[in-house]
Amino acid sequence: MPQRLYNCETLVCLKLFQVTLADAEFVSLPSLKTMYLEYIEFPNEATFETLVLCSPVLECLKVVVASDNEKVFRVHSRSLKRLTFERVSPFLFESAGVVIDAPRLSFLTIKDNVSKSFLIHNFESNGILEMSLVGFVRLVEIDDEFFDDIYEEGVLLRRSNIHKFLHGISMAKSMKISRGTFKIMCHYSKLEPLPQFRNMSYLDITLCLHDFKWLPAFLESFPNLEYLALVMVCDDRKDDDVLREDVDQVSFSSVPECLLSSLEFVDLTAPVQYDVEMKLVKYLLKNSAVLEKLILRLASYNSRRDYMLKKLLKIPRASSKCKVVIL
Question: Which stretch of DSSP H or E encloses residue 133?
């Protein structure tokens, strides 16, 4: 990349792909609002940090990093509103991590299974953060194909980093998390309580069928939740008999605060062969005092639909205005 691009007063949007950058001794990009940096070769960590720091009106930043890039990425910006960071590897190794200091940040997407830490600092008390956590940082050095005991070991190993990350995002208003992220947070909650996400109004979770037993306790950390989207997926490692046994053993003994006071909409996508969706729907209908609408999305249309409709009509509802829709 030509050096003169580091000092361009009129540049508003910069998108670079597979470019090798020279060391930035002096950077001044006073008009830059959008910057995409995908698979860039940085001579050192300071060059990336300087690019961001010296773009005083930067609002949107996307960084896609090669899987073998082990640099620390520090994002310090007083103006940044949207940040996407991706560093994904099919191999099992870790890099130093990511540090974000952007008090005006309102949208953050993370796809990272390499960084051993992901730290977020200095959110303003009235700041709003929308999170899309896909895969989570590899705080536990594992992927979804591993078993629960390895999750437990990994969460214990990275307990301090997970604590800092979760408390850093506790001001979030909406969040989308993958099944691996859900599993990590649930195992972490066995060690110490999750932070209270009191600003959270929208939550989108993908989870395995045999993990849905953790849902009520998990929702205790979202006392003002209004919209809950759930996507339940089968675990390919377990056969049908084992999954049915897991579902049969689930007993919900607690009712989180959000069901009693704030939850108005539920959107549930589920398979139809294990009865898990009926157990969860029954629990939600019986305990959600202000629920207005529950949507049940079945993975496929079959003869069980009519059977399920009849069962739904017999379930008592805590909210008299609740409507149930099956798609």
Answer: strand 129-133
Q: Confirm if 152 and 187 have CB atoms less than 8 A apart.
A: yes
Distance CA 207, CA 179 (A): 4
For residues 99 and 303, what is the distance between their CA atoms, to the nearest angstrom? 52
One-letter amino acid for residue 300 of the chain: S
**Cα within 13 Å of Cα(66), Cβ side:** 12
Distances (CA, A) of 101 to 65, 79, 111: 19, 10, 18
Which alpha helices (H) appear in 250-321, and where do they start and end? 257-261, 276-287, 304-314
Spell out where 10-76 has E strands: 13-17, 34-38, 60-64, 73-76
- pLDDT tens string 133-171: 544 444 443 334 444 555 677 788 778 888 888 888 888
The beta-strand segments (E) located in 180-261 are 202-208, 227-233
C-alpha–C-alpha distance, residues 255 and 287, integer Å: 7
For residue 264, the one-letter residue type is E
Say how far apart CA 32 and CA 59 lie, in whole Å: 8
Least confident span in 69-78, 118-127, 154-163: 118-127
Q: DSSP states of 82-109 as a string? A: EEEEEE--SS---B--EEEE-TT--EEE
CB atoms within 10 A of CB 313: 8
CA distance 59 to 289: 40
Is the Cβ–Cβ distance between 265 and 227 less than 8 Å? yes
Q: Are 72 and 98 in contact (CB under 8 A)?
A: yes
- Please give the torsion angle defined by the CA atoms of residues 15, 19, 23 and 29, in that order, rounded to the nearest 10 degrees: -10
Which pLDDT does position 19 carry in this prediction?
92
**Is the confidence at residue 270, as pLDDT, over 90?**
no
Going 265 to 179 to 219 to 160, the CA torsion angle's sign is negative
pLDDT of residue 144: 42
Structure tokens at 198: 């009191």
Cβ atoms 137, 180 nearer than 8 A: no
Of residues 310 and 77, which shows the higher confidence score? 77
